[in-house]
C-alpha cells in the first residue's frame, strides 16, 4: 500500500501548473491540517489494517509552505504504519524549504526530498512564475545534503520557448554538480486551467530535443527508468512512482488527492472549504477489468517495468509480434518492453485498438 498526502498551498501559482493549489486562504492552513489528519486516520484504519506502508509521498502544492510543527500530528498518526524500509518523500520549493524545515522533516522520518527547481535560469524562472531564484535552489539542495538526506531529487522543465539544447545543458550540468541522486526532466505541457493554456507560443515541440536530453543525462550517470525520471542508480529510483506504474493500491489524502483501493478510484473534495467541513466525503469511480488493463499497458510501456504478455488477447499478441518485427518492442522473461518511452502511448493504442 502506498500513501499520497496533498498540501494545496503555494506562495505563487506557476503558469504551467494544473494541480489543485491555492495562493490565498493561508488562514485555513491549520484547519486544513486538522481535516487532513481526520481523513488520514480514517483511510489508514479502513484500508490499511495490519499493513505497513511501502511509501509515503507528500506533494502539492508546496509542502514546505506548512510549518514544521503542523506536521507533528500527521507523523504521529503514521507511526504505526511505517517502518525503517518505508520510503518517505516530501516535495519542497527552494524559497520555503529552510534549513530548519528540512531538518524538521528529517527528524520526522522523511528520507527522500524533492525540489521543484525547474530551471537555474533567472529569466526562465520569472516567466514560469517560480517564487525562487537559482541561488536559493542551490542553497536548498546543499542544505538538504548537509542535514543528511542522501536521496535528493531535482525537477527540471524543458520545452519552454527560450530553451535550447545548450542552455538546457547548462541547467543539467549545474544540477549534476550538486549532491542530487535523482532528476525528473519534464516536458512542458499546456493544461486547461493554467495561465499557459491556449498560449502555444510558449512551448517548443521538438522531439529531437528530448532525445538529446535523454542521451546527455545518460552520459552523465543518470539512467532513464521512466519517460521523465532518471537516477544515479537503481537504489535511487522512486519506489512511490514505481508503485503507481505497477498499479499498486494507494491512499489519497487531502483536497484534490486521488486514491485507488479495491478496483475503485476515490476523490476527496477538491474545494478547500468543503474538504475542511467533511474530509471523508469521496466521489467514487468503479474501474472495470478493461480500464485496469489499459492503465497497466499505458504505464508499463512508459517505464522499464514493461507489460506482462499474459494480459494480451490473441489479436493483441499479433500486433505485439508485428511491433517486435518492426523492432519497436521486445520480449524478455514473459514481459514486453518498450525501446522508446516517447512512443509509449502510440504503441499502447496500436496494440489495444
From TrEMBL:
InterPro entries: Coproporphyrinogen-III_oxidase, Elp3/MiaA/NifB-like_rSAM, HemW-like, rSAM, rSAM_horseshoe, rSAM_sf. Its main location: cytoplasm. The keyword Endoplasmic reticulum does not apply. Residues 1-231 form the Radical SAM core domain. GO terms for molecular function: 4 iron, 4 sulfur cluster binding; coproporphyrinogen oxidase activity; metal ion binding. One of its GO terms (cellular component) is cytoplasm. It holds the Pfam family Radical_SAM. One of its GO terms (biological process) is porphyrin-containing compound biosynthetic process. CDD domains: Radical_SAM. It comes from the Bacteria. It is found in: Cytoplasm. Keywords: 4Fe-4S, Chaperone, Cytoplasm, Heme, Iron, Iron-sulfur, Metal-binding, Oxidoreductase, S-adenosyl-L-methionine. Belongs to the anaerobic coproporphyrinogen-III oxidase family. HemW subfamily. NCBIfam families: hemN_rel. Probably acts as a heme chaperone, transferring heme to an unknown acceptor. Binds one molecule of heme per monomer, possibly covalently. Binds 1 [4Fe-4S] cluster. The cluster is coordinated with 3 cysteines and an exchangeable S-adenosyl-L-methionine. This is Heme chaperone HemW. The lineage of its organism: Bacteria, Pseudomonadati, Campylobacterota, Epsilonproteobacteria, Campylobacterales. The gene is hemN2.
